[in-house]
Amino acid sequence: MSAGIGAEDDANTQPFNERTLELEEIGPDTYLSVDLWQPKGNRGVFGGQVIGQALSAAGKTVPSPFRCNSLHCYFLAAGKGTDMIAYEVRR
User: Which end of the chain has the smaller Cβ count within 10 Å, N or C?
Assistant: First the structure.
């Protein structure tokens, strides 16, 4: 990841910054994205970031010896960069 975005840069054109996978805990097993990146010209947010945030949320709910073995995702609709995503982890 890069060190961050300078004031002269458009945040929407920078693929990653220090907040790419950052989540805010809003309840038990529930997290909210802090930052979403929508590449210039795309109709929605970057799917790789959404997958990374979902995996990060899941990882926060299990003890450290457990790791992800497999991850499968389907994108049914484009996410808007103006609406943060809530991740609810079900055990």
Answer: C
